[in-house]
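re: the backbone from monday

yeah here it is again, tokenized this time
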């Protein structure tokens, strides 16, 4: 095979003898695209010539897509693309296959109500909101990052402070 083409030799690396019947050798290949390329006339002739050189007689060769260990095809049948099973997938959301999953899709949450205009807020509510904003000021919540990290290490991982003396 090397005399023919290094690419041809590489294509045959996944090939195997699928079936031998009288004067026909069926070569299987695990990759469908490469099986199709090996079936092209030029490559089929090169395979015939190689087998004739080894066995000393003319032998017909056909290439199919198959997996090693699968049974040989029935005599005289040539698998076609129409005979091979096709993979298909339908999205349940597209109305194809039935949804067999037990997952329940939650209903979307109601949008939060629109903020009330300032004119509708009473003075008491406004004063309460202002007082709350002053109590939750960011300056009272700012902490030293090292202190927070140390606290997390102690609470989550059981770390302890080493004496620096």
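seq for it, each position gets an aa:
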């Amino acid at each position: 095979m090397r005399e023919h083409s290094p690419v041809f030799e590489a294509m045959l690396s996944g090939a195997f003898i699928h079936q031998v019947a009288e004067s026909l050798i069926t070569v299987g290949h695990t990759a469908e695209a490469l099986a199709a390329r090996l079936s092209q006339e030029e490559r089929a002739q090169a395979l015939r010539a190689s087998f004739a050189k080894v066995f000393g007689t003319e032998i017909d060769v056909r290439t199919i897509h198959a997996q090693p260990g699968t049974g040989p095809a029935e005599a005289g049948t040539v698998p076609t693309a129409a005979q091979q099973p096709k993979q298909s997938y339908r999205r349940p959301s597209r109305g194809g296959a039935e949804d067999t999953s037990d997952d329940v899709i939650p209903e979307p949450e109601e949008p939060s109500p629109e903020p009330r205009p300032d004119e509708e807020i009473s003075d008491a509510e406004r004063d309460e909101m202002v007082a709350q904003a002053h109590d939750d000021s960011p300056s009272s919540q700012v902490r030293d990052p090292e202190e927070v990290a140390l606290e997390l290490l102690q609470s989550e991982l059981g770390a302890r402070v080493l004496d620096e003396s």
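Residues 41-55 form the longest helix (15 residues). Residues 74-78 have pLDDT under 50 and may be disordered.
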